[in-house]
Structure formats: structure tokens, C-alpha cells
Specification:
This protein has about 325 residues and is mostly helical. About 60% of the residues lie in helices and about 5% in strands. Strand 4 and strand 5 form a beta hairpin. The radius of gyration is 21 Å and the shape is globular.
């Protein structure tokens, strides 16, 4: 027992030491990422305005890469909230608020919930904030017929990925929550006002119809894929969830967060967020250091990856089986 405790202690020191070498932002890399993400997004937007006069099918085709850049901008927004994109926390906040407007997300509200998510991920006793609603087999079995139907509807891919993402970013993000302070609520409303002002200005320039025909497909494609990324990072067959008494930060980060091994181009557009086990070990690691941290250190090489195709099994997984320590389908109860 003593040797096991000492081994775990040494292991903890190992990963903390390793991570500390990657959690320092590089100002040039950060600014270059802003340039190669925001500038192409703006250019594509302008080109899409022009293509509407030629062919709307061409406009829709351009919406796909534009949505990819929107996802990449969201990763910048995400890193700023963790304080990992710049050394200056003031700069993180400024860039985070601006990129938050581009991705239709209030900076302070989203990052409050996201930090709770990081502090409680994989903890069965602390579910409900910043995560996808997940019930255990026992909890589901104890529900009434109506509540079982509601949960099944919520976990249905058609709702979870077809309807919920666009509602989340266009409507739900506009509302405050009871736990928020007056200042935090004010920031949510200011974000909404900023969005309304920006949208109004664009409509005055290009017209409301053109704006909707461009922004809506970009936002829809980006939000669907963004929610899918977040979902698969914590909803896969062998994901680990533990009771509070058994919950451990390092173990849950490595085994309760996936390594989503994407093709190179998709990994670039998603800002390496597929290396989610590294991100959960230390949210202070900038996205451009996640891949490097994983491959340069053998301690992370035994993490089993999810591939682009194997991840689709997650669409069928609905409940967590505490006894088997894995996600299962309804048919496996």
C-alpha cells in the first residue's frame, strides 16, 4: 500500500512537471492564430455576400469553411476564458469578449459554467453545470414514464445535434441565471446589445434577407459541430465517471476526457481541442501546445484514441452504467 501511494505521488509530480512546460502562451503564436482565423472568416463573409448574386448554392458551399473558421474562433474565445491565450489577463478578457460576439456567446456567463465543468467533470455527485445531461442506469430506471420519454427525447441525436445547438447559441445564451451577480447579468445583456448593434449595422449595409441567408447556415453548421465536439469529448463508451469519494482530478482528466484523433485539417479547424485529456489536465495549456504536449511525453501515449469514425458510436450511448463503468445504449439495460 505504501509503495502504491508513493507511486501515485510520483506520478502526480511527473504530470504536473510535464504540463508546466507547455502552459505558457506565446504572444506571436496567439496573434497569428487570431489573424489566420478571424481574417479568413471576414473574407469568406464578404465573398458570400457577392456570391448570392451569382448562385446561393455557391454561397452555401462557402458556408462550410466559414463555419470551420467560426469553430476555430470559438477555440480562441475558449482559451481566453481559461487565461491561457495571452499572459495578460486583461488582453485575454478583451479578445475573449470580442471573439464571443463573433461566436454569439457571452464571455462571462459561458466561462463561469465552463470552469464549473472543469472542476466537476466525471463527478457523478456534481453533474448539471456546463455539461450534457447524463443519467445513470439506476436513475433512469427510477423515472416515471413521462420523465423517461423526456430524457429519451433530450438524448435523441435529432434534438441534441439538429435543434439544440442553434437554440443554445441564439436564444439560451441571451438569458441570465439566478446564481449570477448583477455585474455578470449586466455583461450578458451588454453582449446581447452588442450583437443587436452589429447585426443591425450589417442589415443596414447588405439587407436583412442577405444577412440571414449568410449568417444562419454558418452559425448552424458551426454550432452543430461545436456541440458534437463537446459531446464526444465526455460521452464515449469507456468514459470514466466516479462518485465524489472516488473522484480524482488526474485520473478523470485522462480517462474521463477523450483523445479525439481527427484528420489533420479538422484538427486545425478545431484548434487541437481533440486532445481533450491534456486540456483537462491543465486548461492553462494554449490550444497550439496541446498536440505537442501529447506526442512529446510517453506518459500520455497509453490513452486510447477515438477516431473520426469510431466516435459515431457515441450517438447511440445514453446512460452511464456505474457497475460496468461505461456508457451504454438503452437496449443494453
Amino acid at each position: 500500500m505504501k509503495e502504491e501511494v508513493e507511486t501515485n505521488a510520483n506520478s502526480n509530480r511527473d504530470w504536473r512537471t510535464i504540463i508546466s512546460g507547455y502552459n505558457r502562451p506565446d504572444r506571436l503564436k496567439s496573434w497569428w492564430q487570431i489573424i489566420n482565423s478571424v481574417v479568413p472568416y471576414i473574407i469568406l463573409w464578404v465573398v458570400m455576400v457577392k456570391t448570392i448574386e451569382i448562385s446561393y448554392w455557391l454561397t452555401l458551399l462557402l458556408a462550410v469553411p466559414a463555419a470551420g473558421f467560426m469553430v476555430r474562433i470559438f477555440i480562441i474565445f475558449h482559451d481566453c476564458g481559461h487565461g491561457s491565450f495571452f499572459k495578460s489577463q486583461r488582453m485575454n478578457k478583451i479578445v475573449g469578449i470580442i471573439t464571443g460576439l463573433i461566436v454569439f456567446t457571452p464571455y462571462h456567463k459561458w466561462h463561469h459554467d465552463h470552469k464549473v465543468h472543469h472542476q466537476t467533470v466525471g463527478n457523478l455527485d456534481k453533474r448539471g453545470v456546463g455539461d450534457v445531461k447524463t443519467l445513470t442506469v439506476e436513475e433512469y430506471s427510477g423515472l416515471s414514464g413521462w420523465k423517461k420519454f423526456s430524457y429519451r427525447f433530450y438524448r435523441n441525436p435529432f434534438f441534441l445535434f439538429g435543434i439544440a445547438p442553434i437554440l443554445l447559441f441564439t436564444l439560451q445564451h441571451r438569458f441570465t441565471k439566478p446564481y449570477m451577480s448583477f455585474r455578470e447579468k449586466m455583461y450578458v445583456h451588454l453582449t446581447t446589445l452588442g450583437l443587436v448593434a452589429a447585426i443591425t449595422l450589417l442589415i443596414l449595409v447588405i439587407g436583412w434577407k442577405t444577412y440571414i441567408l449568410i449568417q444562419l447556415p454558418i452559425l448552424y453548421i458551426a454550432t452543430v459541430h461545436g456541440v458534437w465536439l463537446f459531446y464526444v469529448q465526455h460521452q464515449y463508451r469507456d468514459v470514466l465517471w466516479e462518485d465524489e469519494a472516488e473522484w480524482d482530478y488526474k485520473t478523470t482528466a485522462l480517462h474521463g476526457s477523450s483523445w479525439f484523433k481527427l484528420p489533420g485539417i479538422l484538427n486545425w479547424f478545431t484548434g487541437n481541442i481533440g486532445y481533450h485529456h491534456i486540456h483537462h489536465l491543465s486548461p492553462r495549456v494554449p490550444n497550439y501546445n496541446l498536440k505537442k504536449c501529447h506526442y512529446e511525453n510517453p506518459i500520455f501515449h497509453n490513452v486510447k484514441p477515438l477516431t473520426f469514425f469510431s466516435a459515431f458510436e457515441s450517438l447511440l450511448l445514453r446512460l452511464y452504467d456505474v457497475k460496468k463503468k461505461r456508457m451504454i445504449r438503452f437496449s443494453e439495460i
